[in-house]
């Protein structure tokens, strides 16, 4: 999946540096689950957009807000979601539902 709309143009940009991507991969490899990706495999889902360029209107964004859970909790995961329609910030809320 692509966590941002334009990966080639941002390879040397903070937030998408190789060492940052490697850290996330390592985090997942150590037993954590990206709750949104469990239910949403497709790209084009972002949590941040540049306000100056009105990127949100074109959905040219980055997915930089996550909700991770331990793999032990994965069996209790009901949903993981992004709320792009919620305005008020250059970020949108992310959420998770866990059943106990």
From TrEMBL:
Molecular function GO labels: DNA-(apurinic or apyrimidinic site) endonuclease activity; double-stranded DNA 3'-5' DNA exonuclease activity; metal ion binding; phosphoric diester hydrolase activity
Pfam families in the cross-refs: Exo_endo_phos
SUPFAM superfamilies xrefs: DNase I-like (SSF56219)
Keywords for this protein: Hydrolase, Magnesium, Metal-binding
Required co-factors: Mg(2+)
Biological process (GO), any one: base-excision repair
Signal peptide: none
Domain Endonuclease/exonuclease/phosphatase, residue spans: 23-91
UniProt cross-references to PANTHER family, sorted A to Z: AP ENDONUCLEASE, DNA-(APURINIC OR APYRIMIDINIC SITE) ENDONUCLEASE
Family classification: Belongs to the DNA repair enzymes AP/ExoA family.
Annotated protein name in UniProt: Endonuclease/exonuclease/phosphatase domain-containing protein
Species in which this protein is naturally found: marine sediment metagenome
């Amino acid at each position: 999946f692509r966590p941002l709309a334009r990966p080639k143009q941002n390879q040397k940009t903070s937030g998408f540096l190789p060492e940052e991507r490697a850290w996330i991969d390592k985090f997942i490899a150590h037993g954590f689950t990206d709750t949104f990706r469990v239910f949403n495999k497709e790209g084009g889902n972002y949590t941040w957009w540049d306000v100056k360029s009105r990127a949100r209107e074109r959905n040219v964004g980055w997915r930089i807000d996550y909700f991770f859970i331990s793999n032990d909790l994965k069996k209790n995961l009901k949903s993981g979601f992004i709320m792009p329609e919620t305005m008020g910030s250059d970020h949108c809320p992310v959420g998770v539902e866990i059943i106990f």
